[in-house]
Description:
Layout: H1 7-17, H2 20-31, E1 34-35, H3 36-43, H4 47-59, E2 63-68, E3 71-76, H5 79-92
Helix pairs in contact: 3-4
Amino acid sequence: MEVFLDYQKESKILKALAHPIRLKMVELLMDDECCVTDVSNAMGISQSTSSQHLGILKNAGIVFPKKYGTKTCYIVENQTAQQIMKILLKEAK
Length: 93
């Protein structure tokens, strides 16, 4: 049985993960959803920087926004990104 990858889609995911801040964001968002303020505070970066990186992760299909009134929270629901992070975290141990 042959498996065909969507190389464009997978490449977009890998490119988005190829930044230390975004890798850390994905790790943070794998367990629980957070809003931009929570991400900024947890990572010690500005809200504008957080928003820019979250935008890249969203455009790559890695994180998904959930609206709560005026608040937008993000969570990782992309299986490929989760598997990549699990491999990286396992290798770090």
